[in-house]
Amino acid sequence: MPGCEQRQAGHSAHVTYTPFRVVIRMCGIIGYIGQEQVVPLLLEGLKRLEYRGYDSAGIAAIANGRLVRRRRSGKVDDLAADLEASQVLSTVGIGHTRWATHGPPTEINAHPHLDSSGTIAVIHNGIIENYLEIQQTLDGKGHTFVSDTDTEILAHLIEEEAKQGGDFLDAVRRAVSQSAGAYAVAVLHAQTPDRIYVARRGSPLVIGRGDGGTFACSDVPALLGRASQVQFLGEDQVAEITSDAVRIEDFAGSPVDLPLHKVSVDPVSIQKGGYKHFMLKEIHEQARAVGESLREKTDHGRFEIDLDALGNLPAGFENIYIIACGTAYHASLTAEYMWEQLVPVPTQAAIASEFRVRDPHITEKTLVIAVSQSGETVDTLMAVRRARERGAKVIAVVNNERSAIDREADASVYTRAGIEIGVAATKTFTAQLGVLGLLGYELSRRLLKADPSSLDAELSRLALLPGRITETLREEARISQLAEEIHGETDALFLARGHLFPIALEGALKLKEISYIHAEAYPAGEMKHGPIALIDEGTPAVFLLSRSVAFDKVIANMEEVKARKGFVVAVTDCPHEPALHRVADAVIPVPDAPGISRPILFTLPLQLLACHIAVPRGTDVDQPRHLATPVTVE
Predict the structure, then answer these.
(1) pTM: predicted TM-score of the whole model, two decimal places
(2) Helix runs in 378-464, H state only
(3) What mean pLDDT, rounded, does the chain reach?
(4) What element of type H or E holds 4?
(5) What's 347-388 look like in SS3?
């Protein structure tokens, strides 16, 4: 049904997992075997995967029967420059871009890692949690290690298992079966130069098939324009890949038949399209991203989100949790505010990592909404599993079909934002706001039998939303000029009330992420309880101000900042209000649109402001330091 995947009746969509503590490295891996030269393909794929990590990179290939490895610290472009000077001619290889967890981002810790003989190369996205115990065992067998990583231990363990003889895939299977944690692994073996071996537990791994060969990688963007069909390797599965075939088995050795899915994403979506940064491009894609996310659920004036897999909702949910991390949490908190007037049960947004360590009230009458752009965010995934163990029903709100959270939920509602390359989320956030807003109406309709006239009015407003997004983005020149004035500041405050407060949180996060300016967000009424002490002469204080949300009180808060010589910025849907111009140093207008549209429209200037502040500060807008996505680290 539109916007939702319903689980098949009589068939469990859930896998029983052996409990383990999941900690996953955010890295990108890719492998190729086929007819084309492998190095350009690996470098192209790694560039597309750099949003997953970019502090070191490397490749391994089999050339003339010999394993060749090239690595270096820094980004993929640095590796590419090194490879220009050393011709590596091969049609089979693996590559890796790293976000460091074990050991600093040095060349010696960069992947691939080799075994003692130098004939086995391993790349890895994840963490082997029992690597110290494995290392002690291997030490006793004469193995020597040169890096600080857990991945090198895996290469030596595969070497040890291969000594038993037989099929090399069996050696890989035995090695990964002994490894606790979560991982996606790709292995090259010089003695089987016509094969790549892969394994998965916890971390995503995609197998792609094209006319020229076969790929394995962390995410679909690496394959665009190269593979026409993909398979998503399942939990606790291994595969042997050749140029024209794939053999898949589970960890017990039983054959597995995975469906093929057509790659429907346009390769143009991962190009900058004339924009200087992916983030800026993705900001300007929001009219389409939000529009498509809403359109499939409201087409031709009809409203439809299929939640039949949840059973009889009116039988009585007693409470709702909306769980998420980072930007998705801010969307969830906005939904909590919006749902207060719609959904007749207590609703609470919760940070997934905290949800896991607390003792929330979860019963069979609890509904959990799990929000994640990637569908792989580990804290959210673990919180979903905990909720299901206690009998809760789970709805996933994800941008990535067939992701882990999507597969484990009882039902899913999808955003249609497309691929997001910039690490700082933009279009996926506003798409989440729109979908969560509609989901609130659906729950209201089922639980409360709400008056359909309020929904009809909302749908009429949403039909105008893509145009209003475009209108708001036309203020970019004004916002860029403001950024020039304040980009040299070291601190900033974001203040708002009501359902605009979570948008202030998101604005502060965006500024921190990409400009490295210290930024905090507070409910405007809390300013006098501490944050006002941060105001110095010229300190930017960005207020989100709507005529419909405590207007007079927020104006009073602005007066307090102005009295202390702060620099007052007003993002507002009432830009011509005289009281506003008495206190504001800068005014950014947004269209006046109630309901779901309001938080979306107020978000856009904050994204543009962060981007245009970051550029003159010389930071990497698309790949900010220390960050990667999806965030799969616990």
Answers:
(1) 0.75
(2) 378-389, 404-408, 427-448, 452-463
(3) 87
(4) strand 4-6
(5) EEEEEHHHHHHCCCCCCCCEEEEEEECCCCCHHHHHHHHHHH
